Amino acid sequence: MTVILGISAFYHDSAAALLIDGKIVSAAQEERFTRKKHDANYPFHAIEYVLENSKLKLTDVDHIIFYEKPFLKFERLLETYLPFAPKGFKSFSIAMPVWLREKLFQKKFIFENLKRHDKDFDAINRINFSEHHVSHASSAFFPSPFEEALILTLDGVGEWATSTLAVGKKNQIKILKEIHFPHSLGLLYSAFTYYLGFKVNSGEYKVMGLAPYGSPKYKDIIKSKLIDLKEDGSFRLNMKYFNYPTGLTMTNKNFSKLFGKPVRSPENEEINQFHMDIAASIQVVIEEIILKIVENISTEYKIKNLCLAGGVALNCVANGKILKKKFFDNIWIQPAAGDAGGSLGSALFYWHQVLNKDRKIQKSDSMNGSFLGPKFEDENIERKLKGLNANYQKFSTDEMIDIVAENLKNQKTVGWFQGRMEFGPRALGARSILADPRSDKMQKILNLKIKYRESFRPFAPSIIIDDLTDWFELSLESPYMLLVSEIKSNLKIEMTKEEKQLFGIKKLNIKRSSIPAVTHVDYSSRIQTVHKKTNPIYYKLIHKFKELTGCPILVNTSFNIRGEPIVCSVEDAFTCFMGTNLDILAIGNFLLFKEDQNKKFSINYKKEFELD
Amino acid sequence: MADFLKKNLNQNDGIFQLELNNSVAKKVSDFYSNNPFPNYKNDDDKISILEKGNKNLLAYQFKKFVGHNKKIIEIGSGTGQLSTYFSIGNNNLIVAMDATKESLKVAKNFARKNDIQNVLYLNVDIFDDVLTDEYFDFIWCNGVLHHTKNPSAAFNVIIKSLKKNGYILVGLYNKFGRIRTLVRKIFYKTFGIKFLKIFDPTLKKLKISEEEKLAWIKDQYDHPQESLHTLDEVLIWFKKNDIDFISSIPTCDFLDSKYEDIFKKKSRGNYFYRLLSQILMIFNRLGSDGGLFIVIGKKK
Question: Is the ipTM of this complex over 0.95?
Answer without folding.
Answer: no
